[in-house]
Amino acid sequence: MYDIHSNKYHVSCLQYHITFYTYNDIPLEKKEIDFIKSYFKIVSSRHEFKIVGIEIQGFSVTLVINCKTTHYIPNIMKALKGGSARFLYKKFPEAKEKSGGNLWAQKYYIATDNRQLDIMVKDY
Description:
Elements: E1 5-6, E2 11-12, E3 14-22, H1 30-46, E4 50-57, E5 60-67, H2 73-91, H3 93-99, E6 104-111, H4 114-123
Antiparallel strand pairs: 1-2, 3-5, 3-6, 4-5
């Protein structure tokens, strides 16, 4: 479950809990959820991080990822959110009409501990 990364300077095991939502809380359909899950797996292998857990319900996405210290989270989020929206709209053009052209809300929540994430999302 945990990937331990090391180089000549350090040994690390980073696990991030990430939550983000669709724009205007528009629920995703089953076919869209399946497509997004498969796309996220492709992105994770391309960017060399591991998705340990993924849950997509209605309009929310929760991911648990394992990555190296050299990964830059904003780049990972850009690849996940931007790419999934672009390719989802190519495959399901009706989804673009439903969402008005924006699939994901700009904000995302990230923590190294699931309890921290739950508190942060609840407080917001």
